Amino acid sequence: MKLFKSWALANKGLRYKLLLAFSLMSIIPLLACMYVISTYLFPQVDNLFGVSAIIIVSMVVAVLGLALAKGLVDPVIDMAIEAKIIASGQFDHSIAVSGDDEIGNLASSINSMTQRVRTNLDELKGYGQRMREINVDIHKKVMALSSLLQIGDMISSRSIQLDPLLSLVVERSANVFDTGYGVLYLAKEANSDFTARTSYNLDTEKLEDLALKRGGYGILEKVIETRSILIMDKGVKISKEIESIRADLGVTNIIAIPIYSGRNNYGLFLVGSRLEDFRFKDDDIELLKVFAKQITIAIESEILGKKTEQLAIKDDLTDLYNKTYITGRLEEEIRRAIFYQRPCSFIAINVDGFKKFRDTHGELAAEEALKRMAKIIKDNITPVGKAARTGGDDFAMLLPEKNKKEANFIAEEVRKKIESSNLLRQGQAALTISCGVSENPIDGATADELIKKAAEAVKEAKSLGRNRVVA
303, exposed or middle or buried, with CB in 10 Å at 0-12, 13-18, 19+? Predict the structure, then answer.
C-alpha cells in the first residue's frame, strides 16, 4: 500500500505536490498556533468566537504563503511545459517572461537558444534548397557539355546530315532551360530572307512563320546586321521595341544570337524560356554562344564539303575522273570539235549483272573488279582521251578526234578484254559490259545530248542480250 501511494504521488504534477505538501505542513503550525494563543496570549478567550478568529487569521497567513509559493512555482511549471513542446520540434513556441528575476532570466535564455536553433534550421533549409539548385545546375551543365562534345564529334566526322544536326543543336540548347524552346532562322539562298529552318518545343506558330529581311529595321533583323546579342528577360529595361516584339510574337524571355562568319550573315539563333521572373545567367549565355558557334561551323563545313565535291575531279576507288569533270570536259571538246569541224565521240559503259556479282562475292571482291576494269579502260584510252567512273557500276570514255566507227572499235576492244580477263583473284570472272557509242554532231550538239544518246544505246545493248556494243 505504501509503495502504491508513493508511485501515485510520483505521477502527480508539481502543483498537486505543492498543495499537498503545504496542507500537510500547515496542520502542525496551525495547531501549535492555536495552543499558544489560547493558553498564553489570550487565556481568557475561551469562547468559540475567539478561537474561530484565531483560526481564520492563521488560515489567511497560510493562504498568503501558498500564493507566494505558487507565484514562484507556476512560472517554473509553465516553463517546463513550453520547454517540452520546444523539445518536440515546435521551435515557433516561446516562453513568456514575467519578471527580471532568476526565473525570468532562465526563460529569456531558453527563448534565445530556441531562436538560435530556429535560425540555424532556417539556414540549413536554405542551404539544402541551394544545394538542390546547384545539383540541378551541375546536371544541366554536364548534359550541355556532353551535347557539345557529341555535336563536335558529329561535325568533325560528318556522320550526320546538316538538317538533323541543326535540329539536334536547337533541341539541346533549348533543354538548357526549364520549359525552354528554340528556333533557327537561315537563308535558303545567298540573298534571300531568313526563315525558320528548324525549331523545337514551340507552342506558337508566330515564331515559325516569322521571316527576317536582310537590312530590315526590326529588332531581330538589327541583331543579324549588327552582329550583336539581344537579351530579353527580367533584368532588361523594357523599351517600346521589346514590348512590341513580346506582344507580336508572344514571347517573354528570349536570347537572340546572330550566326555569321567573315562577311557572311547566315541567320539568327533564338532560344527562350516560358518561366516567369526569369533571368539569363552569364554562364548560360556563354554556353549558348558555343552552341551558336557550332551551328556556324556545321554550316561552313557543309558549304566547304559541297565546294570540295565540286572541285574534286577524281574517283577515290578507281582513280578515274568523276562524272562532274567528264561532263564539263565533254562540253569543252564539243565546242572545240564544232569550231575545228572535227569529230568527238563518247562511250557509255555499264557492268552487266554487277549487283548480283556483289551480292554473291562480297563488297571487297566487287571493288577489286571495278579497279581492274578501270585499269583496262584507262589502258585503252587515246592520248587525248579521258576515262571516268560516272556511277556505281558505270564508266565513260571521252574520245576527241574519233568518229563513231573508231569509237566503236575501241569500245569493242575494251569489251573483249574485260570478258577475257580474270577479274577475281581466283576463278573466272562472271562480269561483262554493255557499251553505247554516240558522236558529235550526229547524235547531238551538247554534252547532255551525247550522254543521253549513249545511255539509250546501252539500254539497247542490254535488251539484245548484254555483253555487246551498240552505236
Answer: middle
CA distance 46 to 37: 11
* Residues facing 387 on adjacent strands: 397
Sequence-separated (6 or more) residues with CB below 8 Å from residue 144: 172, 176, 287
Helix (H, G, I), strand (E, B) or coil at 314: strand
- For the chain, helix (H) and strand (E) counts, in that order, are 14, 11
Query: Any bridge partners for residue 256, and if so which?
Result: 230, 270
Closest CA to 173 of 297, 287, 296, 301: 287
- Choose the weakest-confidence range: 75-79, 222-226, 314-318: 75-79
**199: which strand partners?**
183
The lowest-confidence range among 119-128, 162-171, 199-208 is: 119-128
Which of 61-70, 300-309, 322-331 is modeled with the greatest confidence?
A: 322-331
User: Is 103 a residue whose pLDDT tops 70?
Assistant: no
Q: Is the pLDDT of residue 455 over 80?
A: yes
**What percent of the residues of the chain are helix, what percent strand, and what percent coil, each to the nearest 5?**
60, 15, 25
pLDDT digits (tens, 9 = 90+) for 109-154: 777 777 787 787 777 777 777 777 667 677 677 776 777 778 878 8
Backbone angles phi, psi at 304, to 5 degrees: -65, -40
Peptide bond between residue 441 and the one before it cis (omega within 30 degrees of 0):
yes
Other Cβ atoms less than 10 A from the Cβ of 142: the count is 10
Q: Which residue has the cell 557572311?
A: 264
Report the pLDDT value the prediction gives residue 284, as an integer from 0 to 100.
87
* Residue 425 neighbours by CB under 8 Å, 6+ apart: 368
Distance CA 331, CA 325 (A): 10
Scanning 39-101, the segments in alpha helix (DSSP H) are 48-87
Mean pLDDT of 164-188: 91
Whole-angstrom distance, CA of residue 239 vs CA of residue 367: 66
How far is Cα 345 from Cα 436, in angstroms, rounded to an integer? 11
CA angle 412, 418, 420 (to 5 degrees): 100
d(CA 349, CA 390): 9
Taking a C-beta distance cutoff of 8 angstroms, is the pair 183, 199 a contact? yes
Planar angle of CA 41, 47, 51, nearest 5 degrees: 55
Question: Structure pTM?
Answer: 0.52
- Under a CB-based contact definition with an 8 Å cutoff, are residues 284 and 177 in contact? yes
Amino acid at 350: N
Measured distance CA(119)–CA(171) in Å, rounded:
43
Asked if 187 and 216 touch (Cβ cutoff 8 Å), the reply is: no
Cα 193-197-200 angle, rounded to 5 deg: 135
